[in-house]
Amino acid sequence: MNKYIVVLLLCMLPYFSFSQEKVEGVVFDSDASNALSLSGANVYWQDSQTGVVTDFDGKFSIPYLKEFNRLIISYVGFESDTLTINTPKTIRVNLKPSNELDEVVVQQKRDAIQKTYFSPQNVITVNSDELLKAACCNLAESFETNPAIDVNLSDGLTGTKQIQMLGLTSPYLLITQENIPMVRGASQAYGLTFTPGTWIESIQITKGAGSVVNGYESISGQINTELVKPLTDNAVFVNGYANQNGRYELNTHFNKKLTDKLSTGLYIHGNKRTQKEDNNEDGFLDAPLGEQINVMNRWQYQNVETGFVSFLNVRFLNDEKQVGQVDFNPNTDRVDNGGSLSGAEGPALSGAEVWGSEINSRRFDTSLKLGYVFPELPFQSFGFQTAYSFHKQDSYFGFRSYDISHESIYSSLLFNSIIGDTRNKFKTGISFAYDGYDEVVTTDDYSREDRSVGAFLEYSYENLEKVSLTAGLRVDNHNRLGTFVTPRFHIRYTPWERGSLRGSFGRGKRAANIFAENQQLFASARQINIAGSGGDVYGLEPEDAWNYGVSFLQGFNFLNKKGDISLDYYITDFENQVVVDWENPQEVSFYNLEGESSAKSFQVELNYELLTRLNFRTSYKFYDVSTDYKSGNLQKPLQAQHRFFINLGYETEAKDNGAQWKFDYTLHSFGEARLPDTSANPVEYQLPAFSPTYNLMNAQVTKVFSNSFEVYVGGENLSDVQQINPVLGADNPFGPNFDTTIVYAPIMGRMFYGGFRFKIL
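User: That's the sequence. What structure does it adopt?
Assistant: Structure tokens below.
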């Protein structure tokens, strides 16, 4: 490992010279008095290799070169400007919008959902304006209006929504918060519900192989969440929400600018549900009872003159859920006082027992990010980040208990700079990760420790006219996975105007946390079998996969309205996979892949402004996700091969005080999905081979009274689709046919909600 560190240090010692004479300035998006500064604009001397990019505030500083006098300023979506400069000076640059090669905007506001023509990676950025189109209460509910992510219920009890991308579930995604790994390990099942929607500033969705900078675990892609910043967030923000099923939520933000450089924010989230719902009359709650309190304190320091920026987060969370039969009382009816992993044994039953479950999670986490941008060289910077978290879950599901404590430490050091000019950039750094698990499944102890050290180098070539590419390589040493290499490569080519063709490939590797990732299986009578072969992860070998992808994006103007169409196709091939086999209704087996397993995903998406302020978005997706099980090659269960999506959004013209109406409608159409085999069950507990097709409709209307206050009402599942029997064996939950895991459609019927947002700017 020492040799890798030596190589890394050598990469981090380039020498850069610069002139003391310079041209400074700020780049704006127009010449109006309320113009916005443009971050990331290119500033360079014509016919030279010297260039910079503007910082967060649109500022730049470039060495003055006497041999050149033509300074070019360019930005995506704006006309380039060429200035004649004969002496060092300070200037203001105003760029005019252009219809050529601009950013793809699929929402009325330019950056609500945004794709780029020029990035080598297939990245979709979703900001808070898009998130407000649905009353998303947490991160898991933030993708209802975005076709890139699929959202499904994980089981028939907890109401927890899980996300999928490219046909694979969230464990195969790297989910980060401001580029720090977040939803993983013990938090995999419920962690998406621990980030309130109002805390989110933007979400970056990367399809396919991610960057080596963020780790080796990304297989199908990455979702990175950027939180609101104390410096730019509202001084006061209050959001209230309630629905007809007894769910109540309150979010408050309090931000204070302490000095010109230091700001802090206090963010508080609380939710509660006490109303019992059993609309299908199967004796089980359709949605959990529970409450959550989530508090975060965030500090931001920014000094533009010296180039230093830092963030400090401290958060505490307590989340409690109760599920099971309607009459379950945890004080008197709990029965998890014995049993085994297999579920074959348990306490003696009297016949009067009531089945129930409680899932209680407590979490503390803190993170620190430090950054330094060289004032004279804005393309060169250092970054350090470190995070600590402690997650504890105590839970039981009928007979079975599941307790896990997860202590995690993550640190990384990053250096950014250029090679020659700003077209050639590189990132290099090191990272360290520690995960300590105290995990007990009823009476079986699976405690363990994971430690890894890694080094990475990523090179980027950026040529806005034709070709851009990113190539990365990282080497990691893991105490249980050994030493391994994960390469990643992305390339973008512009064949013609407003066209962007991309290709990518990369490797991902991970240690599966089979119980934390599949907790829904505890709420069944299935015996649990681990068919390990002597591996270091539950007796299983680590998962290893390659992802390959191509995509094409084409922007166009039709009838003086902007639009774009995109196509992408991705293949994930597993060299090794931990197969979750529940084709036998009496058991679930975990074993390493013997044969082939792949996930193929095709998507076509069209975005178009039908009328002024009326935006239309539609997509079609096809999945071919198959695995070699012990019983043969089968399509992934509960995965609809065909999906269709439509979104319509309309906003009236805003008045001077911001008053306007907003309307949004979303349709999801699901094709049939293969269901796990239940033919071995008695006839009354058997399910068909495939689920029926169905349509899911959501809508929301928002009345903005002013820049400070708005109210919204909406409805989910307006088509009132409900799965008839989400809980198999509900009449005998302690019997051999009890199963809550086969869920393919909504459990709750039509639901209406309302809320308000108040803010002091």
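Residues 1-20, 99-111, 338-344 have pLDDT under 50 and may be disordered.
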